[in-house]
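Now read this:
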Amino acid sequence: MTDEAKTEQELALEAAEAKATETNSARTGKGTRVKVGQTRGRNPQVISYEVFDESNPETLPKTLTEFMDISKVSDEQAIVSYLLDGYNSASYIMASDPVAEFVEASWPEEVQKQFRIVVRQYAAGAQVSIEDAVALIKPGIIKSQTK
């Protein structure tokens, strides 16, 4: 798409993303990163805000004290609110996972995680159902865990 064909909104979004990339590349260590998005509603506006980048684990706080230092949040009610939001989100993700019913609780956490990934990727790549992918993959996982 040429610059002439881009809308003002698209140009503003690209400019904000370029600025966020520049800002984030200068940041090192633990801490938040700038993310770009848009407001909800009829006339969305480009916004930039601070987030913890979960795709980059070395930037994440490991303790409550680190979280409080980085985020500058010290109000206990705010922290509990964040904990509740995170807990509810994680619970929904786990409950809505179509692979979850096939995961054995006795498997180590890393095996459970890899099983979910492999099943999803195989099902998508081979264009088969989750159940068919599980039928092919799970016996191998079970065999590897009984050794």
